[in-house]
Amino acid sequence: MKKISKLATRQKAVTNVLASLRIEQLTPSPSVVKGLRSYLAGETTTAKLLADVMSHHVAVRRV
Fold first, then answer.
1. Domain for residue 55, yes or no?
2. Residue 44 domain-assigned?
3. Which of 22, 25, 52, 55 is the most exposed place for a label (fewest CB within 10 A)?
4. pTM, 2 dp
5. Per-residue pLDDT tens digits for 7-56
């Protein structure tokens, strides 16, 4: 059985994210692209990347 490297797993995840954006006819912002590159390099985790994207792109609703 062939073992998949961590880099290959990361590349597949980034490819899937970008494909999903293209399907929705969306373009990733420069901060998202930067985050995906740092994820590919192993400098950040998916949880940190998601938190960064949400803090930058999702407005806080206060009632």
1. yes
2. yes
3. 25
4. 0.77
5. 899 999 999 999 999 999 999 989 889 999 999 999 999 899 889 888 88
* Domain housing 39: 28-63
Number of domains in the chain: 1
Nearest C-alpha neighbor of 57 from the set 38, 39, 36, 30: 30
What are the tokens at 54? 């949400």
58-26-15 Cα angle (round to 5): 100
Tell me how far apart the alpha carbons of residues 54 and 31 are, in angstroms, rounded to a whole number.
Answer: 11
SS3 40: helix
**Which residue is it, tokens 């985790």?**
45
Give dist(CA 18, CA 61) in Å, integer.
28
57 in a structural domain: yes
